[in-house]
Every structure is written in C-alpha cells, then in structure tokens.
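Bit of a strange request maybe. I'm writing a small parser for structure token strings and I need a real example to test against, not something I typed by hand. Could someone generate the tokens for this chain?
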Amino acid sequence: MLTTRGRNIFYFIIAGLILIGLVIFFGSKFVLGDDSPVLQSDFNVEYNELDNTYITLRRWEYNPKKDLMEIEISTRSVSNFAFAPELKFSAKTRKDPDVELSVKKVFQLDGVYVVQVQHVPEDFEVVALVIEEEERHFHDHDEDEHDHDHGNEFINKPVLSLYGDYRKLQHNIELTSKSEVEYIEEQINFEIEQLLYSP
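Reply from user aminoacidic:
Good idea to test on real output. This should exercise your parser:
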C-alpha cells in the first residue's frame, strides 16, 4: 500500500502526463506542423475562369504585424467589346467564409491591379481573393420606360477565386501602402526584368 508521500508522487505523475498529453494535442500544429493540404494558387499561371478576362497572379505578400496582405495580378482582356470589363474584388478566410474582409484596390494601370486585404485575422490559414468581372449593359432606346431606368445596371459574371495559404505566402514586415509613383516604378522594374531574363 502506498504511503501518503507515495500517493502524492503518483498523482503528480498522472497530472503531469495528462498535462503533457493536452499540450501535445492542442499544440501539435505548432510542434508537428500543419498537415492539412496546401491551398495556394500558382503564381505566373494564366487563369481563364472569367468570361472576358484572363488573370495571372504575380505577387502575394503578407505583413503579420499590420494584418495586411497585398496581392498583385495582371490581366489580359479577351473581350470583343470596346471596353474591358471592370473587376470587383472581395476576400474571405477558409475558417470564416461568411465574413468578408476589407479589400481595397490601391493601384490599377495597363491591366495590372494591386489590391490590399486589411484586418486579416492572425489565424487565417487560407485567404480567398474572389474576382468578378462586371460590364455595363445598355438597353435599346425603344424599350419601355421601366427598362430604360435600369439601363446602366451591372450584370454579374462568373467568379475566380485565388487562394493564399499562410505556409506559401511571402512574409514582408515592411509591407505598407505606397504612392502611385512607387507602384509605377515597381511595374517599370518588373517589365525591365522580364525583358532582361526572358528567353
């Protein structure tokens, strides 16, 4: 039969084993790594899910200190219309797909868009950038007055979702909003690199 001291040691060992088990169970993602499938869209690949616009993901950076992401895409219009469709952006996380994150278009020039996703939660795992194209649809003048009132309404088109997985994103603690001139300089440098290093 165990003495009082022996019983205390026995209970201490049992409590320690339970505590270690709980730490391993709840901290296994940090200790053993995340074994869920990586959900990251490919860079420098042209996506053609939209009707009139092909999209290429060029850059996706994340600043964990500011809960900020910056995504750069290039577009190629395949539309038969005189004007390329406008693009609309939204974002959400895989963990909480019913809540939209704040998205801001910070730069657009010659088919290149830079958008920022703000207030990204620390435990986001995967963020989906959802891209829709919208084009203005004009009704004929001889349609009735009711239709004429809605002549400039937008017609929604198919969507493209680009995914950023926390394990694959470029972490940049210096990432912040830039001026339009700085974004233009980045585009010029990118074009020069493309010319110098293209086969």
